[in-house]
Amino acid sequence: MTHDAEGHGAVLEIDLAAIAANWRSLSARHPSGPVAGVVKADGYGLGAPKVAAALHGAGCRHFFVAHPQEALAIRDAVEGAFLGVLNGLIPGTEDALVRHRIAPALGSLAEIDAWAAAARRAGRALPALLHVDTGMARLGLTPEEVEAVAANPARLDGIELRYVMTHLVSAEVPDDPENARQRDRFAAACARLPAAPRSFANSSGLFLGPDFASDLARPGAALYGVNPTPGRENPMRPAVRLLARVLQVREIPAGATVGYNGTWTAARPSRIATACIGYADGWHRSHSNRGEACFDGQPVPLVGRVSMDLTTYDVTDLPGIGAGDWLELIGPHRSPDQAAEAAGTNGYEVLTSLGRRFLRRYRSA
Fold first, then answer.
1. 3-class state of residue 39 by DSSP
2. Which amino acids are annotated catalytic?
3. Which of 118, 136, 198, 338 could disulfide-pair with 214, CB 3.0 to 4.6 Å?
4. Where are the beta strands (DSSP E) in 132-290?
5. Could you tell me the pLDDT band of residue 116, with boundaries at 50, 70 and 90?
6. Last residue of a domain, one of 159, 191, 224
7. Is residue 6 over pLDDT 80?
8. Do 263 and 218 have their domain in common?
9. Residues 90 and 190 occupy one common structural domain
10. Is residue 11 part of a domain?
11. Per-residue pLDDT tens for 298-356?
């Protein structure tokens, strides 16, 4: 670890070049149209302005976020690019979206009417997407609302309809019949709506084959190295490395317990390394007694409870580990997906939970 990590207990390294390379790889898989960069949740926890700038530099010209404030945070980094807000038109945000040419994903008749009214006030057409619900049952036009728009397309007057979109429910499970059902529902809805380009596949959807291609794909987690094909080899480059410093190593006798509530008992005389990371840093308490870290590529098991600021590891079999050394929690030897499996969650939550106390270092080459 280089000297610029002095005084820090944990380091988060983000490989912007790998993120850009992942975008190029996904673009090659989608010849039917461009591939966007989904940079919501602060670029999946990695820093949206820097991630967006790296993607823009690689040629990405479509970006999506969840909230309007996330769009405003990256607008200057993606000058000239299409920028969409997936959570739709939140009342009171219209003026900011108009001013910065940000497109909401309109998912209800009320949102359509409000955006059309904003266009009339602005005196010009305003960009937007139409979000059609084909099975997620969260946001998006219901079948009845699709029919209402089909019966009265003038409702869209003043709206520059850039894309019609939907969101896959189970794209990471290729043989789930819901994928084909959503494909067919989406095609039927688009046939009823005014003609517009379509946006369909997410990260995993890009691996479902040509039936799920469209005019714009919207990958998110795959850009950051999360495996879009669970159960198969990860086709994406790793983009994140998380390191935690060992603060102390102590010897304990057989029968001694470690951590809050003594949930782990040493079966032999053991060496316990206490690392400077905890659930306040986003390293979930559910890792307790389940996760592991790596040292020089060798696994060391997490023992005891993850606490707010500290996590303990059994390093008995690696006597070379001492205070000041660094354990790899995510990196070349342990992916976000592996960390997620130990915590009972997914790689998305692992990345988006990463806290602000880390020293963050960005690599662009």
1. coil
2. 40, 260
3. 198
4. 159-165, 198-199, 240-252, 257-258, 264-265, 270-275
5. very high
6. 224
7. no
8. no
9. yes
10. no
11. 999 999 999 999 999 999 999 999 999 999 999 999 999 999 999 999 999 999 999 99
